[in-house]
Amino acid sequence: MNAIRASLVAQRARHLGPRMLSSSSSTAPRRPDRTRASPQGNIGPSALSAHQVFAPLAKNRPVFKISKPITVIREPQQFYRDLLHGIKHARRRICLSSLYIGSDETQLISALDRALEQNPALQLCVLLDCLRGTRTDATGMSSAALLSPLVARFGAERVQVAMYHTPALSGLSKQAWPQRYNEAFGLQHIKAYVFDDDVIVSGANLSRDYFTNRQDRYMRIPDRQFTDYFAGLIATISQFSFR
Question: How far, in Å, CA of 164 to CA of 100, rounded?
């Protein structure tokens, strides 16, 4: 039995590394102390920083150093108020990327209309999913129909509405699948709401249930470089979308 036990200990040592065995040859693994403080009161070298944890993710991905505080929005009603506040106070650009805009969101459209009227330099770009954004409700209204008066009034130079259509649905398949069911082939699902140099990153769409009782995640990030990235992403996808 001692020989078998010694063999098992040796196998575990090779598999788990020498740190798992104590100096007294105990088989119980020791967990590294990640909270050991140095004599100066700082965390010692055994502690892993957030940078060390997430550094591998940054090798082939954009990274941003956010210097200003990030605001976590807690409730759907506050999310809606922040959207209206961003629209009202934007002076250069508003970029809205969502799956769709609720077909009854006339108040949101009115806020965009007033902002464009009061600020001649303001540019509006909207990116929606084509299949979801053109789906009609019982009255025949859709996101596309809701936005079309803004384009007609202020012109395509100031108001750009893009509808991304998945390439997975085309030809006879597109004709065969009815509304709602055709969305199973793929959707544009980015939820980012840019107001000048602030952006709200969320999982919430622009519809009444997300403004009242449907809880989601929302963060408002006031950073020019980070906001420029999302505005550029929306603009790039819009180039490959219907308008």
Answer: 11
- Whether residue 113 lies in the annotated active site: no
Reply yes or no on whether 165 is catalytic: no
Please pick, among 68, 104, 137, 189, the residue that the annotation labels catalytic.
189
Read off the pTM: 0.76
Q: What six digits make up the tokens of 233?
A: 């992403």
Residue 198 catalytic?
no
pLDDT of 233 above 90: yes
Torsion (CA) 77, 88, 205, 137 in degrees, nearest 10: 100
Give per-residue pLDDT as tens, 93-128: 999 999 999 999 999 999 999 999 999 999 999 999
